[in-house]
Design goal:
The chain has 330 residues and is mainly alpha-helical. The protein has one domain. The strands form 2 sheets. Strands 1-4 form a two-stranded antiparallel sheet. It has a two-stranded antiparallel sheet with strand order 2-3. It contains 11 helices and 4 strands, in the order ααααααααααββββα. It is globular and about 60 Å long.
Length: 330
């Protein structure tokens, strides 16, 4: 019971720290550590196993299992020892983990760099800033394409970077949040359908799809609720979500994109270039009006409101859990 109280306080603290500070540059970050671990393990596994289809698929499964075990057991061990010996130390460590597992402030900061460049008429600067947060080619994008890409990034990462980690931390604290973030980072590094990763990255991509299946849908529904609270087009958000939520190679990525596109009454996605090759993606949303730079700010408002709603739900679930424990002891 005491640990649950401290853990809930750590979740609150981590959420507030992210909202205030974001991810300062040159500051040690857990995701960079996870990324370094994934790179090291990938090299080791590829060196050991044969370069065949079966060997690469086996290597991908081994990578997923190894990363999950390491990235979950280390924080779990640290928190178990610290909470047993010095609860305040456990609170500090878990607060730090919760803070680093969330990315709302950094998502807003990086996307707003694109917004400010567009507002100043600096299309080259906007393309450069956009290239820091998307995987597509940005050198030839016009103003509307840059704007759409920034909105898509905010909408998609509302789930991956903010609400999904919150939901997993609600259930299992920072340790489960680290498990989620490890899988999500793996997917972003090896979950590609190119020649190098089509077999090796399959396990990571499927695991990420599984872990995001429910959070992405909760995030989309709460984004629709956020559209109502912010006086955007809530009805259209729900309509577009129902119609376009599966218009993506991933079963989860279009969930929040569709809700955002409907709320803002704009059309997102469509064909995009990656490493010089154009990928013919379907459009999401209706072209009711042209996208504008201000829509990036609106997407961030939707992202923050959605994250606050998830945060409130997480706290209510934690309080309910503590209430059940108290009643059980009576």
């Amino acid at each position: 019971m005491t640990v649950l109280i401290w853990s809930t306080a750590a979740l609150i603290t981590g959420f507030l720290l992210d909202a205030i500070f974001g991810d300062p540059h040159r500051f040690p970050h857990i995701v960079r550590c996870i990324g370094g671990l994934i790179t090291l393990l990938e090299k080791s596994i590829r060196h050991i196993l044969p370069k065949t289809t079966c060997g690469e698929k086996t290597g991908g499964i081994l990578l997923v299992c190894s990363v999950i075990i390491i990235c979950t057991c280390i924080p779990l061990f640290l928190l178990y020892i610290s909470y047993r010996s010095i609860p305040v130390l456990g609170f500090i460590i878990e607060s730090f983990f919760c803070y680093q597992l969330l990315a709302a402030k950094s998502l807003k900061t990086e996307s707003m760099k694109v917004y400010y460049s567009l507002q100043g008429g600096d299309i080259k600067g906007a393309r450069k800033n956009l290239s820091m947060i998307v995987g597509r080619d940005t050198a030839l994008l016009d103003t509307e394409a840059v704007t759409r890409a920034a909105i898509e990034t905010v909408a998609e990462n509302t789930s991956d970077g903010v609400t999904a980690p919150l939901l997993y931390m609600m259930i299992g604290g920072a340790a489960l949040g680290c498990l989620y973030k490890a899988v999500n980072t793996m997917d972003s590094m090896v979950g590609y359908k190119n020649e190098k990763y089509i077999n090796f990255g399959k396990a990571a991509a499927k695991t990420d799809d599984f872990l995001n299946y429910i959070p992405s849908r909760i995030s989309a529904l709460l984004m629709i609720a956020s559209a109502f609270l912010l006086k955007f087009n809530c009805k259209n958000a729900f309509r577009i979500w129902r119609r376009d939520r599966h218009k993506h190679a991933s079963p989860n990525s279009a969930q929040t994109e569709a809700a955002c596109a409907g709320a803002l009454e704009v059309q997102l996605a469509g064909p995009a270039s990656y490493h010089g090759k154009t990928i013919d993606k379907p459009y999401i949303g209706d072209d009711i009006r042209r996208v504008m730079a201000d829509d990036i700010n609106s997407a961030n408002r939707l992202m923050y409101t959605t994250s606050v709603l998830v945060f409130i739900i997480a706290l209510l679930v934690r309080v309910l859990g503590m209430g059940v424990l108290i009643i059980g002891k009576i």
